[in-house]
Amino acid sequence: MSSPNAESTAFRSALEVIRAVEPRVAGAIAAELADQRESLKLIASENYASPATLLAMGNWFSDKYAEGTVGRRFYAGCQNVDTVEALAAEHARELFGAAHAYVQPHSGIDANLVAFWAVLADRVEAPALRRAQARQVNDLTEADWFALRRELGNQRMLGMSLDAGGHLTHGFRPNISGKMFDQRSYGTDPVTGLIDYDKVAEIAREFKPLILVGGYSAYPRKVNFRILREIADSVGATFMVDMAHFAGLVAGKVFTGDFDPVPHAHIVTTTTHKSLRGPRGGMVLCQPELAEQVDRGCPMVLGGPLPHVMAAKAVALAEARRPDFADYAQRIVANAQALAEGLVRRGARLVTGGTDNHLAIIDVTSYGLTGRQAEQALLDSGIVTNRNSVPQDPNGAWYTSGIRIGTPALTTRGLGTGEMDTIAELIHTVLSRTTAGANPDGTASKAKYALDPAVADKVSRQASELLTGFPLYPNVDLT
Ligand SMILES: *Cc1c(COP(=O)(O)O)cnc(C)c1O
């Protein structure tokens, strides 16, 4: 550990230097810390990176171009970038037991694009592609290029449906993946809310996808990756897992055996800033046969890497290899379960009835609300969440019928299962005291709501009192 003083001095000095150039930026940075300290953050995809991780991003690495890979750059003078990229990749391989790690993707979306390209390049039988990869690009005719585009553009992807908790990048229309691929989805069982693996197998047999995608942003249960791999193998699909949300639980060995995607998937993508608690960024892990294609991420999909973020990834991954990270991961799940149980005990309806990971989805139609109304009412009461679809959502993707809550951030702050029960009480109070509003023509509004300001104020006060016992960045004093 660095001395407490060092952290305050570092951030205070940084702000002083920024303030001299554009004081409004320094002000916004300081205000952001103050806001984060005061808000009860239950956003399942957010966390608080360590001071060391944050500081590793603010330096001269930001000035470097480093297209290429370690030891093979298109720019001179990359020896120090090589050091941090190699370190981040080594920590990632060791942490996850992966054969290969590519740490350049700038975000989760970018990591998925890198993975899609790697699988297409590996799997699509287009002679023109082989020649292009063999650097015989100049020999290709217009007809070759036409054939290549047609082959690449006609591939199939099977992923989890959006309303069941899948991600936009798994082949959905608003994302490029939905335009690149012919996509089908698997959902969850309408009664249990769980993935029905027999149904996945049935769709896969019929659809014969090139890529089967596992992973989610809003599914509150473990996923059996061994079974999904068997399904992929049975139809000759490449099995990809996007562990953006739960990478921290894999790193912390909460998800092991059938529930650890790394030994089962051909290729695994992730963000580094969610439960993994690193800098905002992405990463790809893969089996050796895909390594060469994955390393073509830049320049195929990505521009120059972000060496300052790779430095921060190396720091955060080193932190995740320490024994206390496993303890952190266990506490994330214990907290999510305590929060879920507290809500269920008070009468809330949860998708699947509970959780065995870091998140839960409250079906707020049981309170007579849409997700949007519930999200706003909670925000008025000092509780930060996000609205989310529930399976077969009657209110669509904008208003939704759910609230997603997650515990990685509050667990980092040190809150435990006792506090989670208090939070369940606060959430239940707000939702049960909020009523849906009406449109001028008398029909039910999906956005308007009414909540007694006295209730919102009281809950806000209780939420901030709860947080005072758990200071955020306790060693950072900007005053
Ligand atoms: C968050 C998320 C992403 C996207 O990550 P960004 O860094 O925001 O691009 C991709 N896939 C899944 C499953 C996610 O949850």
Question: How does the SSE layout of this entry go?
Answer:
Layout: H1 4-19, H2 23-38, E1 40-41, H3 51-57, E2 68-69, E3 72-73, H4 79-96, E4 100-102, H5 108-123, H6 127-133, H7 142-152, E5 155-160, H8 177-180, E6 181-186, H9 197-207, E7 211-215, H10 225-234, E8 238-242, H11 247-251, H12 261-264, E9 267-271, E10 282-286, H13 288-294, H14 297-300, H15 307-320, H16 323-345, E11 359-363, H17 371-380, E12 383-384, E13 386-388, H18 396-399, E14 402-406, H19 408-413, H20 417-433, E15 435-438, E16 444-450, H21 453-468
Parallel strand pairs: 1-12, 5-6, 5-7, 7-8, 8-9
Antiparallel strand pairs: 2-3, 4-10, 9-10, 11-14, 13-14, 15-16
Helix pairs in contact: 1-2, 3-15, 4-15, 5-13, 9-10, 16-20, 20-21
This protein binds pyridoxal-5'-phosphate (PLP).
The site of pyridoxal-5'-phosphate has 14 residues, from helix 5.
Rounded to an integer in angstroms, the radius of gyration calculated over CA atoms is: 23 Å
Q: How can the largest sheet be summarized?
A: 7 strands, mixed
CATH architecture name of the largest domain? 3-Layer(aba) Sandwich
Structural class determined from secondary elements:
alpha/beta
Large-scale geometry: globular
Gap from first CA to last CA: 22 Å
- Overall domain count: 2
Ligands in the model, by name, code or SMILES, are: pyridoxal-5'-phosphate
